[in-house]
Amino acid sequence: MNKGKILIVDDLHPVFKQRAEDMGYVVDDEPQITRAETVARIPDYEGIAVRTKFRIDQEIFDKGQKLRFVARAGAGLDNIDVKIAEARGIKLLAANEGNMDAVGEHALGMLLAMMNNFRKADMEIRQGVWDREGNRGYELKGKTVGIIGYGHMGRSFARRLSGFGVQVIAYDKYKIGFSDEYAREVSMEEIVKHSDVLSLHIPLTAETRQMVDDEYFFHFRKPIFFINTARGEIVSIQSVLNALKSGKVIGAGLDVLQTEKFPGLAQQDWYPELISNDRVLLTPHVGGWTFESYRKISEVLAEKLSTI
What we know:
By secondary structure, the chain is of the alpha/beta class. 34% of the residues lie in helices and 17% in strands. It has twelve helices and twelve strands. It has helices at residues 14-23, 35-41, 58-63, 82-87, 100-115, 118-126, 152-160, 188-194, 214-218, 237-246, 271-276, 291-305; strands at residues 4-8, 25-29, 47-50, 69-72, 91-94, 144-148, 167-171, 184-185, 197-200, 224-228, 249-254, 280-282. The chain has a seven-stranded parallel β-sheet, with helices on both faces. Strands 2-1-3-4-5 form a five-stranded parallel β-sheet. The two termini are 15 Å apart.
């Protein structure tokens, strides 16, 4: 039974193609295809699978009149024009569950590295500096960790904190009654009052874009360690740097930035200050990108494809 054709335009684990073909789809796996080539060929396909290569926007939807679904190999749908897809009855599949373990571990790793000055201490020793007092760290035990967004990613981070003797509190604007063995549901007022650590696990939307700004940090009662493994455009990097200078933020772990990749990143006004601050820990948007999640994402996506 031929269920239609799927065009894979990005680097997906082969298990997705294999399982889609087992379901009866014809799959063209072309990770090197360009956007222009995709636009030209999309009229022939019922489905398209993408990771982060380019945006699935009105141009692609207009050309892809046969499209029944878009499969996003990753967490979130922010590189897909959701409104157009929903208006046309096109199914949207994402694989948030596939990299939630990776994100939870990465956030925890960033937090421990910041609290114990791993990056600074390592660099100093390589430069012949032995400074024990300047690299004295903080313990997690007894701290309160605030989580914004308690979906797959937020819960994954909370679960990994469960052995550290911390109190985990979580706020989610769109969920209620989600307290569990890993986190206690609270108001935003309690987050800003009690948090020693703040970690973001929310999608990028019109509402969350540049949500974390100077005013956002101003409301926190205690100095915090700040982690963002969600989306870079949620946070004003200049505001993070301002909060580091004022003492509102003790350390910042940023896996995502409001501008990513070079040369664009290096052209930002805040870039020199960002890279010269030894209380900032940076990684290149790899929080959810492990050798294990590469396969798991495609497995989750294939499972969701089987339900439509």
